[in-house]
């Protein structure tokens, strides 16, 4: 038997735990947590945002970083989603360390091992659509195997909209562009 849910209770999971890093006009770093986002082209990420300190910053700098929440960063990642940079310096309060991206005017938060550096390609406050051109990606060597990002080392988390929890991404269960070929 199928159970029907109203639209607002629909569950689109897995969702990412994207940590958006920005500077304000004085160079003060900030970070926010966003679940609504996806790769929208090669070298492009699209996020869906309300009005936040983060979007005010992006309007001023035209740049942002996107780090991926991990098992080791659950607590700070959630904090970045329940506090606003309009009130406190979240980076300081979370005890994080930042360095300026060499490519865009946005901070890289060193506690996160994988970070995209993005130029703002499009920001529309009406629809909340933020499109970023990924100009570079920084990966800590601790998460690499044979020069590639190793998800088993990164240990990324996802947001579960039904349980309001963060979950660790599980192991490999198949080969993409491979397992289906047997049915062709
Ligand atoms: C799990 C989680 C997911 C979130 N996803 C989004 C999102 O996709 N879009 C959005 O606008 N806000 C989202 N938020 C809310 C912002 O992170 C929150 O309003 C934050 O305080 C904004 O920070 P800022 O004001 O410092 O920019 C999310 C919060 C949490 C905890």
Q: Which key features would you list for this structure?
A:
binds flavin mononucleotide, globular, 184 residues, 7-stranded antiparallel beta sheet, 14 strands, Pnp Oxidase, Chain A, 4 helices, mainly beta, 3-stranded antiparallel beta sheet
Describe this entry's structure for a reader.
The strands form four sheets. The protein has a seven-stranded antiparallel sheet with strand order 3-2-6-9-10-5-4. A three-stranded antiparallel sheet has the order 1-13-14, with no helix packed on it. A hairpin with a 2-residue loop joins strand 11 and strand 12. The two termini are 32 Å apart. 14% of the residues lie in helices and 38% in strands. The longest helix is centred in the first third of the chain and has 9 residues, at 53-61. With 184 residues, it is mainly β. The chain has helices at 53-61, 74-82, 90-93, 151-154; strands at residues 15-16, 18-23, 29-34, 37-41, 44-48, 63-68, 98-100, 107-109, 114-124, 129-139, 144-145, 148-149, 157-160, 165-168. The chain contains four helices and 14 strands. It has a single domain (13-183), classed as Pnp Oxidase, Chain A, CATH 2.30.110.10. Bound molecules: flavin mononucleotide. Flavin mononucleotide is lined by residues 30, 32-36, 48-50, 52-54, 78, 81-86, 159.
CATH topology: Pnp Oxidase, Chain A
Number of strands: 14
Quickly give the structural class.
Answer: mainly beta
Shape: globular
Task: List bound small molecules.
Answer: flavin mononucleotide
Largest sheet data: 7 strands, antiparallel
Tell me the series of helices and strands, N- to C-terminal.
EEEEEHEHHEEEEEEHEE
CATH architecture: Roll
Given the structure, what is the number of helices? 4
Q: Give the tally of structural domains.
A: 1
């Amino acid at each position: 038997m199928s159970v029907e849910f109203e639209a607002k209770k629909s569950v689109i999971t897995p969702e990412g735990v994207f940590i958006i890093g920005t500077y304000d006009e004085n160079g003060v770093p900030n970070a926010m947590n966003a679940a609504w986002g996806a790769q929208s082209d090669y070298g492009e990420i699209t996020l869906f945002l309300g009005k936040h300190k983060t979007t005010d910053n992006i309007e001023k700098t035209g740049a942002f970083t996107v780090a991926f929440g991990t098992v080791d960063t659950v607590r700070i990642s959630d904090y970045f989603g329940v506090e606003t940079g309009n009130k406190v310096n979240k980076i300081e309060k979370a005890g994080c360390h930042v360095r300026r991206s060499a490519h865009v005017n946005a901070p890289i938060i060193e506690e996160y091992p994988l970070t995209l550096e993005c130029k703002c390609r499009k920001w529309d406050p009406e629809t909340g659509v933020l499109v970023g051109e990924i100009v570079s990606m920084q990966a800590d060597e601790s998460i690499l195997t044979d020069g590639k990002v190793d998800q088993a080392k990164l240990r990324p988390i996802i947001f579960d909209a039904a349980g309001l929890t963060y979950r660790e991404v599980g192991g490999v269960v198949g080969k993409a562009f491979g397992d289906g070929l047997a049915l062709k």
